[in-house]
Amino acid sequence: STLSDSGMAVRYDGDKKTNVLFVVFG
């Protein structure tokens, strides 16, 4: 998983898929 520059989006690479998870801080 990689944190984006904004620090809010978490990119998670699955085995066969690439899912984008949005995490809200606060």
Gist of the model:
The protein is mainly β and 26 residues long. Helices cover 0% and strands 46% of the residues. A three-stranded antiparallel sheet has the order 1-2-3, with no helix packed on it.
Structure, described:
The chain has 26 residues and is mostly beta strands. It has one domain (1-26). 0% of the residues lie in helices and 46% in strands. It has no helices and three strands. It has strands at residues 2-3, 9-13, 18-22. It has a three-stranded antiparallel beta sheet, with no helix packed on it. Strand 1 and strand 2 form a beta hairpin. It is elongated and about 30 Å long. The model has no long low-confidence stretch (mean pLDDT 54).
Topology of this structure?
Layout: E1 2-3, E2 9-13, E3 18-22
Antiparallel strand pairs: 1-2, 2-3
Largest beta sheet: strand ordering: 1-2-3
| Count of discrete domains | 1
Low-confidence stretches: none
Biggest β-sheet: count, sense, barrel? 3 strands, antiparallel
CA-atom Rg in angstroms: 9 Å
Order of helices and strands: EEE
Shape: elongated
Distance between the termini: 20 Å
What is the percent of helical residues? Answer: under 10%
Structural class: mainly beta
Number of helices: 0
Strand content: over 45%
Averaged pLDDT: 54
Q: How many β-strands, per DSSP?
A: 3
